[in-house]
């Protein structure tokens, strides 16, 4: 019987697929799925998802050699976009660097050489050819033993996924790849191995696949973003009063959700908590609104930092993820974390962030969005400032919709808060444009589209 081997090596995949509607759609479509997962996570996944009629196997030992890491770095540094140019400049000029400036100069020169070469199709083809010659013997033997009809890698940014795709192609097994997020072509990959078919979330990513990754347009399927299906269907969303009680919020006040964006903006995110507290206190908005702080999923607050935010500013703080296993991919968004995320957005009156996907997720719930584009009391140059985020291509795609109010000063942040607390409908048309672009008209049906695409690809001779 035809069966699909799915590489499930990251928490992002589990969030987007296993905890969405994909398993039910796959069963309805008649797909036979075998998930290949890290050994430290297999028992937890079997316990949670085994009843869905899918199988789990331990992933083969990955050949994460020096050369594998080298190709990963070479690929990323060669992405010829404005985002990556600014990233290289940030590496050279970043305030927190512990490296000697002479070392950074040498590495910066290498980075910029690769960035320059990355614009040429011939160079990208050479990298793919060289990477294909790098053996991944354990993955190859695993595939030869299991003999799947198709290999599906739904997060093709990680070493294990690339190894599965390239070795499957050598063995004549069909391959399907999919990126996990909206910024991947701008910031991480030009597809160092080309799968036979590529699934993308929207037309923007389809155009980027052709332009940046030399991918044949006829082999691309637009399927939507499965991580947003839950939001559209309001899965796990409870009543406002019930949610407020669960986090200790005042049901009379409006809710401002501040979402951290990860390591790249952490210093400014910390500073913005002080700025927000000052604005609410001095403007009198504290009588009307309260703040819920959501850490970045891979970087939950330490108990000390959570206590600092609660007791210094009086803000609400909740963890955004949990952990299974060990290592950098131990983070997971389990059902509790996903329900918290959905409710925190659904019941927010304003969402504030610097550069996270909450810019997209909040639009699904119709929540006004404020983008941080200043640094508070921090004295940062343009290479370290949050102002640079707006020049990133995927953020610029949002800004031209007029669905996000990017604030450039404390005074403008105060103005935006007052305006949105008075009128939720402000800039609603712009937020609708974001939904139309990012969800590709497949709102709530991405899992179904992915399952049907896989079935169609299986039938192609």
Helix content: 40-55%
Major β-sheet profile: 7 strands, parallel
What's the arrangement of strands in the largest beta sheet? 3-2-1-4-5-6-7
The name of the CATH architecture of the largest domain is 3-Layer(aba) Sandwich
What is the tally of helical segments? 21
Q: Structurally, how many domains make up the residues?
A: 3
Structure description:
This protein is of the alpha/beta class and 461 residues long. The chain folds into three domains: 4-63 and 135-229 and 444-459, Rossmann fold; 66-127, no CATH class; 237-439, Glycogen Phosphorylase B (Rossmann fold, 3-Layer(aba) Sandwich). It has 21 helices and 15 strands. The protein has helices spanning 11-18, 22-29, 42-49, 66-78, 82-93, 101-117, 121-132, 137-146, 159-170, 184-187, 203-213, 229-232, 240-247, 266-283, 303-313, 335-346, 358-364, 393-399, 410-422, 428-439, 446-459, and strands spanning 4-7, 33-37, 55-58, 150-153, 174-178, 197-200, 220-222, 254-259, 289-294, 316-317, 322-323, 331-332, 350-353, 369-372, 405-407. It has a seven-stranded parallel sheet with strand order 3-2-1-4-5-6-7, with helices on both faces. Helix 3 links the parallel strand 2 (33-37) and strand 3. Helix 5 (82-93) runs antiparallel to helix 6. The longest helix has 18 residues, at 266-283.
């Amino acid at each position: 019987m035809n069966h699909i081997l799915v590489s499930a090596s990251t928490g992002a995949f589990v969030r987007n697929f296993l905890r969405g509607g994909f398993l039910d759609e796959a069963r309805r479509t008649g797909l036979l799925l075998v998930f290949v997962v890290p050994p430290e996570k297999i028992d937890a996944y079997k316990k949670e998802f085994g009843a869905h009629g899918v199988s789990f196997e331990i992933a083969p030992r990955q050949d994460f050699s020096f050369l594998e890491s080298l190709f990963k770095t070479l690929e990323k540094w060669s992405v010829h976009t404005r985002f990556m140019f600014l990233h290289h400049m940030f590496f050279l000029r970043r305030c927190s660097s512990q490296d000697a400036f002479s070392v950074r100069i040498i590495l910066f020169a290498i980075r910029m050489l690769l960035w320059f070469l990355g614009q040429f199709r011939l160079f990208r083809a050479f990298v793919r050819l060289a990477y294909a010659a790098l053996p991944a013997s354990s993955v190859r033997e695993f595939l030869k033993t299991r003999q799947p009809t198709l290999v599906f890698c739904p997060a093709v940014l990680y070493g294990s996924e690339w190894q599965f795709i390239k070795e499957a192609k050598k063995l004549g097994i069909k391959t399907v790849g999919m990126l996990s997020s909206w910024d991947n072509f701008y910031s991480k990959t030009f597809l160092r191995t080309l799968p036979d078919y590529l699934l993308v979330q929207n037309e923007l990513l389809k155009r980027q696949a052709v332009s940046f990754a030399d991918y044949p347009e006829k082999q691309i399927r637009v399927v939507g973003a499965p991580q947003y299906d839950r939001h559209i269907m309001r899965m796990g969303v409870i009543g406002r009063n019930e949610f407020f009680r669960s986090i200790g919020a005042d049901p009379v006040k409006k809710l401002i959700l501040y979402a951290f964006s990860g390591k790249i903006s952490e210093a400014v995110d910390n500073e913005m908590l002080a700025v927000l507290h000052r604005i609410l206190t001095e403007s009198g908005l504290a009588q009307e609104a309260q703040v819920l702080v959501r850490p970045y999923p891979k970087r939950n607050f330490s108990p000390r930092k959570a206590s600092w935010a609660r007791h210094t500013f009086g803000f609400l703080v909740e963890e955004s993820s949990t952990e299974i296993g060990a290592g950098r991919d131990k983070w997971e968004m389990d059902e509790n974390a996903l329900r918290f995320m959905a409710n925190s957005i659904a019941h927010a009156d304003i969402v504030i962030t610097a550069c996270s996907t909450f810019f997209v997720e909040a639009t699904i719930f119709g929540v006004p969005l404020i983008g941080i584009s200043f640094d508070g009391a921090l004295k940062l140059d343009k290479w370290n400032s949050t102002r640079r985020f707006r020049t990133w291509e995927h953020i610029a795609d949002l800004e031209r919709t007029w669905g996000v109010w990017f604030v450039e000063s404390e005074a403008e942040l105060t103005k935006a808060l007052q305006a949105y607390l008075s009128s939720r409908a402000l800039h609603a048309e712009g937020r609708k444009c974001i939904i139309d672009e990012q969800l590709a008209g497949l709102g709530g049906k991405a899992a179904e589209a992915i399952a049907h695409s896989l079935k169609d690809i299986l039938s192609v001779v």
